Amino acid sequence: MLVHTPDLVAFDLDGTLVDSLPDLADAIDAVLGRLGLPSAGEPRVRRWIGNGVNMLVKRALTGELWPQDNPPPFDEALTMFMDLYEANVCNRSRLFPGVAEALKQLKAVGFRLACVTNKHSRFTRPLLDRLGVLQDMDFVGCGDEFEKLKPDPYPLLKTAEFFGIEPSRGLMVGDSVNDVKAARAAGFMVVCVPYGYHGGNGVECLKPDAVVSSLTELPALFKKAA
Ligand SMILES: O=C(O)COP(=O)(O)O
Ligand SMILES: [Mg+2]
């Protein structure tokens, strides 16, 4: 349940708006292959998405979820991944069901919409554009454009500032612990989708204000709010 109807709805990208796993996994496996390392495959890459591109590449090189240092050959692997994924950012990636309709509907009734992602700007706008939803966003903030990534509240606080709204009037819609922690620390409301890349446990464990199985359920949720 939401305490009130939001003035601003900020969406996470990977695992919330877009099922980007197939293209991310293909690019990671291509990098690993070029380095003579065994491929990772979609189930493992799924768990590595969400903390930005540097962390994704580190995780792929080490196989660890929380690697300490930059493992060699990190710089080479990162450059390779950036170029490969940028060139193949939307081969198999698709909007999750209901996303296009929900964004158009929310926009039509006057909500301000943003995409606040840890994804790099080299991938984010081209991907949203290819999937036909970039024009629905009043603001797009990417991982490399903020001083800190989610779960830090900084990206959401900057987004609220951009719109000139109180953080308590903002809603974050996301798929992972990073989104919930960022929203709570910023003072945003938070709703989760269960279909994304949230690791092993269900999103209910993250204690969001609500869980929606499709973004098309958001308007009904807002109607019930004060
Ligand atoms: O890890 C990433 O690059 C993107 O993650 P996000 O869109 O879920 O914030
Ligand atoms: Mg996500």
UniProtKB/TrEMBL annotation:
<dbReference type="InterPro" id="IPR006439">
    <property type="entry name" value="HAD-SF_hydro_IA"/>
</dbReference>
<dbReference type="Pfam" id="PF00702">
    <property type="entry name" value="Hydrolase"/>
</dbReference>
<protein>
    <recommendedName>
        <fullName>Phosphoglycolate phosphatase</fullName>
        <ecNumber>3.1.3.18</ecNumber>
    </recommendedName>
</protein>
<dbReference type="InterPro" id="IPR037512">
    <property type="entry name" value="PGPase_prok"/>
</dbReference>
<dbReference type="InterPro" id="IPR036412">
    <property type="entry name" value="HAD-like_sf"/>
</dbReference>
<comment type="pathway">
    <text>Organic acid metabolism; glycolate biosynthesis; glycolate from 2-phosphoglycolate: step 1/1.</text>
</comment>
<keyword id="KW-0119">Carbohydrate metabolism</keyword>
<feature type="binding site">
    <location>
        <position position="12"/>
    </location>
    <ligand>
        <name>Mg(2+)</name>
    </ligand>
</feature>
<dbReference type="InterPro" id="IPR050155">
    <property type="entry name" value="HAD-like_hydrolase_sf"/>
</dbReference>
<keyword id="KW-0460">Magnesium</keyword>
<dbReference type="InterPro" id="IPR023214">
    <property type="entry name" value="HAD_sf"/>
</dbReference>
<feature type="active site" description="Nucleophile">
    <location>
        <position position="12"/>
    </location>
</feature>
<feature type="binding site">
    <location>
        <position position="14"/>
    </location>
    <ligand>
        <name>Mg(2+)</name>
    </ligand>
</feature>
<dbReference type="GO" id="GO:0008967">
    <property type="term" value="F:phosphoglycolate phosphatase activity"/>
</dbReference>
<dbReference type="InterPro" id="IPR023198">
    <property type="entry name" value="PGP-like_dom2"/>
</dbReference>
<feature type="binding site">
    <location>
        <position position="175"/>
    </location>
    <ligand>
        <name>Mg(2+)</name>
    </ligand>
</feature>
<keyword id="KW-0378">Hydrolase</keyword>
<comment type="function">
    <text>Specifically catalyzes the dephosphorylation of 2-phosphoglycolate. Is involved in the dissimilation of the intracellular 2-phosphoglycolate formed during the DNA repair of 3'-phosphoglycolate ends, a major class of DNA lesions induced by oxidative stress.</text>
</comment>
<keyword id="KW-0479">Metal-binding</keyword>
<comment type="similarity">
    <text>Belongs to the HAD-like hydrolase superfamily. CbbY/CbbZ/Gph/YieH family.</text>
</comment>
